[in-house]
Amino acid sequence: MRPELERFVEHTAEGMRESAIVMTLFSEKYKKGLDSLIQFSLAVMMDKPIFLLVPEGVEVPERLRRIADGIEFFRLEDKASLHEASRRLIAKAREQSLIE
To answer: By the 8 A CB rule, do 43 and 10 touch?
Structure first.
């Protein structure tokens, strides 16, 4: 299993290397998924700004709140709410001069 995991980590890191920020959907499944945990760990280790889209009702751990560069909540069944939350996070990243 380790060789497969190493390939996944290398592939994921390669894709993240060019990204200015990491924006992710932080759901209950995300908190438990192996691939999600690896992606999050890579974002931290690569010192990438972290922006979270969080469905209302999902608890964000306090330490994660402290390290996240932006957190926006949205209503899960409302695509417009998700779009608005995404827009607000992108605006925050621009305000911080992380993206153009």
So the answer is: no
Q: Which of 52, 76, 74 lies closest to 64, judged by CA? A: 52
Q: What is the structure's pLDDT at 29?
A: 87
CA distances for 78 relative to 2, 29, 68, 75, angstroms: 39, 19, 24, 5
What fold, for 2-95?
Rossmann fold (3.40.50)
pTM for the predicted model, two decimal places: 0.89
How far is CA 43 from each of CA 47, 57, 94, rounded to the nearest angstrom?
6, 24, 19
56, 62, 48, 52: which is closest to 78 by C-alpha? Answer: 56
